[in-house]
Amino acid sequence: MIEVHRLNNSAFFINHKHIETMEAIPDTVITLVNEKKYVVKEAIPEIISRIQAFEAAIVRYTPGPA
What we know:
Layout: E1 2-5, E2 11-14, E3 19-24, E4 28-32, E5 37-40, H1 44-60
Antiparallel strand pairs: 1-2, 3-4, 4-5
């Protein structure tokens, strides 16, 4: 999950695996696969960067002994 901000600056987390499209019209609009839309302050390159960082952290994670 990645953190994004509404236009009023309130933060929320979104499951990046449910993102279907992102558009800059001029604000960034994220559309999920269930057709729900969110308008956020972050630009598309910033969102992509956060997704990449999140996925990289998962790949780097190595759990300890069970």
